[in-house]
What we know:
alpha+beta; 10 helices; disordered N terminus
Amino acid sequence: MKKIFKIYLSILFLGLLPINTNAQQKIVVKGIVLDEFNNSIPFAAISILKKNKGTSSTEDGEFSLFVTKENLQDTLSISSLGFVTSKIVIRDYLAQKEEKIILKESVMEMDEITILAPSHYVINALKKLKQNTLSKSHQIELLYRRAATEGGKSKFFVENYIRIRDRGPANPLGSIQVLEARKSADYRAWKRKQWTHDINWMQTANPLRPSNRKPNLKKFKWKIIDETSYEGEDVLILEGVGKKKWDKVKLYIGFKTYAIYRIERQKALFVYQKHENGKLYLSYYSNEWGLGRNMIPEKYWNTPAEKMSYRLEAFVYNVELDKKKINVDEFGGKTDMGSLDLPYNAKFWNNLSMPPDTKFFKKIKSELEGNFGVPLKVQYNLVNN
């Protein structure tokens, strides 16, 4: 650790160097998505129409997106379950005094409609999964991050920028290419390495994706627990329970289209948004899970590792349908994401539209920097090179 402090000043000097010309041409579009009562709206889809680019608001409702001068006349679309989609020209949004997007609650009229048995909607949603989602070969790019804690304190943080060849939730994930990576110093007592990349657990957690842990949703006991809407369509919220009572799944299913707009499975969350062609694709993912004493090596008993947990999050930025532009060279998909041997590319990370730090990430970053008083950006430079 002394080595970190010896080269601390040199790293600070490097951090003062100007970023490249392309970064200087970037314009930051940021703000917060709120309802009419000034409550933040988490996980809203923020997209540039007809550009297939965007992001999601964080769990605190905030968002940040880089654009160029060429994008100023483009339209920004903001959509979320239960609200009327808002559209505004980027130039007009930037001219506003306040960096806010106010979404109006949509009006429901489900009382006038005959609702069928809950299982009817689930079965038809599964039948129409390929029809309602991007099921032809396409490419997605996303930010995938993992925070590890021991004993309730943050001990390790890693982020990957990933390109995936995909065919939608009805199929397994295709080729995975980790393009960029950065990580903090590793302060864990148990420096656990997974046999595969964490993004593969994103597939396993999704009850729609084929895997050896995929539940048979048709055999779940379903009930309708609420109603909402999405982009003008009435949406039913259904909760299902499997043979094991702890295995609960919540689906948000379109009443007419049977499209699945959102999935909640224990602590896993999948949020889908519409492509300009009307098909759905994953916009945001998060999950949390931990290991008890019976799942850790005995030598780490009676250490902070006894209470080890992960928090995962993914923001999808780009979707490419043009086969000529799809380019995924498999790399890193079968390696623990914290063990990848990639150099820290500061220019890339400075030019990426990073989501604003939520209260949670402010906390973990503060704890990581507090271990030895070393700023996180300094840790990136030291650990990843």
